[in-house]
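We give its fold:
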Amino acid sequence: MRKRGFTLVEVLLAMAIVGVVAALAVPSISKAYQKKVLTTQLQRAYAEISQAGVTARSEEMVKDFRKSRAIKDLTFIGKYLITMPESYDGFAPTYGYYDSRNANYDFRNEVRNNGNYRCGILKSGAAICLNQGGFGILDINNKKGPNIIGRDAFSIGFNPDGTIDNSYSYSLERIIHNGWDIDNPDEFI
């Protein structure tokens, strides 16, 4: 009389097949998760900064936010953006570029050598530095990787109404145009 059931070889073969399928699926799931996290962080920082810019423009009653007192005397970060202690320590030691040029861009060194920046860490956890012209850099996930300009760090500027000027950063403009889809950095030009 034959017993019904699975042999050890059949069970091991089924487990091997499941293992191979899992090994193929996990990297793409992990990459999709990282992309979603970066997108959410970018959206939060973008909204926080734009709202602060609109508020500052309204309170100061100026037509062009870029000419406001908050930008000129660098009080925008401390007064309108709720930040943790002002410092450039929220930035990674160096940043790469998606196309490998200037692979060791050190923004912190630029800030140290130029007193016209004010930096801080936003409520959302993003690090920001702005100069007296209202231009600067935003690192949406602080020091965490990948630390690539156009992927998790962006140059930023403002529109006259106080919102972020998407056209100032090609990669930021492209991400927003594509429905907040953070592409593969190799696709940026």
About this structure: The chain has five helices and seven strands. Confidence is low (pLDDT under 50) at residues 184-189.
